[in-house]
Design a protein that fits this description.
mainly alpha, Tetracycline Repressor, domain 2, 2 domains
């Protein structure tokens, strides 16, 4: 039983909340009334859950020695030695096979998107995570592929403004993650993640300000776009902007004063303010566009 629990922990199921980006097209494309389409998006999200877990395991295998030096990551199953490398590799392979099978069931486009995600993240795990700035753009690209799987992958036309907003959100979270690592690791940052040698607190704070501003501006412009108003049948989405602003500001507060920012999934689950603002935004948005 302990082994099964450790294998489940190795898959990082708490990170699956990130795959909620797959549902973006379903929500804003007014497609939730089509049961067949809803099921396709659900399966696409399941595919991303499995393939992301597979990549997490590969990354943990590659980084297990560095993770032993990290105050939190040293407790991961591979770094702690509670799961063997061989067991992790087998589990990763099985998850990948299941993910590709589910993606193919949805569509060939979804399979291509999931495959691109897998290849890109393997390149990230073994090489590109050491390239300054590009490392964060690859993290952001992973989220964008999730959005595309839930739009192009199931024949829902994506909104260009929404794609831009999604890019800004993911870059903001990526730079916040790097800033959190610098705060947590202090002088040992380069021994855990080599790319942190090229980041400084000032640089990351500036990048966070730029991307946070981009999130608020792009989302605001999306809500006022004539195509958005026509598709959603309301001009009132502008009133959801304060939710987005508060969420962004709260996240920056958590980063600097509550040791947050390193894991958006955990920050969302643990902070009542973030839970409330995301829940409030979702409820009000669905109410307005229904």
């Amino acid at each position: 039983m302990n082994t099964l629990f450790e294998l489940l922990r190795l898959m990082r199921p708490h990170q699956w909340v990130k795959n909620g980006f797959v549902f973006t097209g379903l929500l804003f494309g007014h497609a939730w009334h089509d049961n067949s389409l809803v099921w396709q998006v659900v399966v696409a999200a399941m595919s991303f859950c499995l393939v992301s877990s597979s990549i997490y395991i590969v990354n943990d295998i590659a980084d297990r020695e560095q993770d032993k030096l990290h105050p939190a990551k040293r407790n991961r199953p591979l770094a702690a030695g509670t799961v063997s490398v061989a067991s992790g590799a087998i589990l990763s392979f099985l998850l990948a096979v299941a993910a590709f099978a589910l993606a193919l069931w949805v569509s060939v486009d979804t399979l291509l998107i999931v495959s691109c995600y897998a290849v890109m993240n393997l390149a990230y795990s073994f090489r590109l995570k050491h390239v300054v700035l590009l490392d964060v753009f690859i993290i952001a690209a992973g989220f964008m592929l999730r959005i595309l799987a839930g739009t192009i992958g199931v024949d829902i036309p994506p909104s260009q403004w929404l794609l831009l907003c999604g890019l800004m959100v993911t870059l903001f979270l990526g730079f916040s993650k790097r800033r959190a690592e610098i705060i947590a690791l202090t002088d040992e940052k380069s021994s855990h993640r080599k790319v942190l040698e090229h980041y400084s607190a000032i640089l990351l704070d500036n990048l966070i300000v730029v991307t946070a501003s981009g999130v608020i501006m792009s989302y605001s412009l999306y809500t006022m776009n004539p195509d958005t108003i026509r598709i959603q049948g309301t001009a009132n989405l502008i009133y959801t902007v304060p939710f987005v602003m508060y969420g962004v500001f709260r996240y920056i507060y958590l980063l600097h004063h509550q040791s947050g920012g390193g894991d958006p999934s955990r920050d969302l689950a643990r902070d009542s303010h973030m839970l409330s603002v995301v829940g409030g935004w979702l409820i009000v948005t669905i109410w307005m566009i229904s």
